[in-house]
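Q: My labmate handed me this sequence with no annotations at all. I'd like to see what the chain might look like in three dimensions before we decide whether it's worth expressing. Could you predict it?
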Amino acid sequence: MYSCNYAEAIERTVEQLSDYNSFKTICYQHHDGEPFPSEKVLHEIVELCRSLIFPGFFGRANVHSGTIGYHVGVNIERLIGLLSEQILAGLCFTCDHTREINLDELRKTSMEKAVAFIESLPQLRKILATDVEAAYNGDPAAESFGEVIACYPAIRAISNYRIAHSLIELGVPLIPRMISEMAHSETGIDIHPAATIGSYFTIDHGTGVVIGATAIIGNHVKIYQGVTLGAKSFPLDENGNPIKGIPRHPIIGDNVIIYSNATILGRITIGADATVGGNIWVTEDVEPGARVVQTKASR
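A: Here is what I predict for the chain of 299 residues:
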């Protein structure tokens, strides 16, 4: 039994938390029949994708040439069911509920997008194989491709990014961002799923890396821990609100190396074959082939 004071405090708190004005901007009002995005299910989706892209390393380990067809078929069947439902959840989450929602039509759209994603898996495997190769070639401590796939946080983060980016390209809302944030939590590497990243991409060590939504990264780019490809402060509209949806992150050319804790801000271009040293800020274009390092202090 609560004392009178406890009961009054609880009743008062219930009333305050139930006040619509206190939660109207931060509450999602669920609608009957609509699924809600599930981080638990998305974790399974990512693991299924990894098991299909890197057979034998994720999911069931006893995969060989004789069982690969069965392994792929079973996992794709499971994946398409889970993914179509999560895509539907994302579409429902962002749809205009002031209008009547046709759930049957949204389910059809969700399945079409899930099938299109499944069709992208061979290309995802192809480009992720280049990322594995880049990580192996770029790290003298790596002893095999298998070690890179099994151990390197960059591969986990980049695989989540490439899965999420494929979904972004299919027009799937919310779900790609959740998948990229799962990798952020797991690895400390924050890659927005809308960023554009070429082949043979690698992140050495990785913790603290941030890559913004409108960043464009070329082929054969290597970055180290703590690198930020970020934006300057937002421009504002006539009402003082931030203008969103404009290009605001760097463009990184082919064969660029960016060393640890470099901060590159704004819609600037780092030219092909350039090198950016560690612990510096870059807010202006860098010419192709240039080497940008800290200036030594004079004595």
